[in-house]
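Query structure, 157 tokens:
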């Protein structure tokens, strides 16, 4: 039996095979990166100092990185309630154009009642690390209560 296989020509001999390499298209067809331009970075850091703050956990910081680098495209920030529910129930998101993208992991930011109370009066909040260094400025959007926590539904500025 081994001799039979050894004498057979390779499949590539019969096929004209062309191999191309490249990046796949991001979900939703557009990469959503959320970085501040270098020329505006210091201005935004100064702006963040005067805003109400939400201190991020290590896990929250990792989600901010995922969102800001576009790994969660087409999301432009933490999920809103309708996106969160679609993710939980359907493992996908339906976009405004009717297309559907895979999204099986909800990306939300949990906050407690005291944080929610502190930022309720502001339309923007600063996300800070454990040393109070500003990480991002977010437009305050919606939130909804889920037991003792609220999930903040905000978009990156």
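Result returned for the query:
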């Amino acid at each position: 039996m081994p001799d039979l296989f050894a004498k057979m020509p390779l499949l590539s001999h019969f096929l004209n095979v062309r191999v191309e390499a490249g990046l796949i298209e991001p979900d939703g067809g557009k990469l959503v990166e959320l970085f501040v331009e270098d020329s505006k970075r210091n201005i935004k850091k100064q702006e963040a100092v005067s805003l109400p703050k939400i201190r991020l956990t290590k896990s929250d910081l990792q989600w901010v990185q995922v969102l800001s680098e576009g790994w969660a495209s087409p999301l432009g920030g933490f999920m809103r309630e309708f996106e969160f529910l679609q993710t939980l129930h359907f493992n996908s998101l339906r976009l405004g154009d009717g297309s559907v993208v895979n999204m099986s992991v909800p990306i939300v930011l949990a906050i407690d009642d005291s944080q929610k109370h502190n930022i309720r009066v502001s339309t923007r909040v600063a996300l800070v690390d454990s040393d109070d260094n500003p990480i991002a400025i977010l437009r305050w959007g919606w939130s909804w209560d889920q037991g003792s926590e609220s999930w903040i539904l905000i978009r990156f500025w």
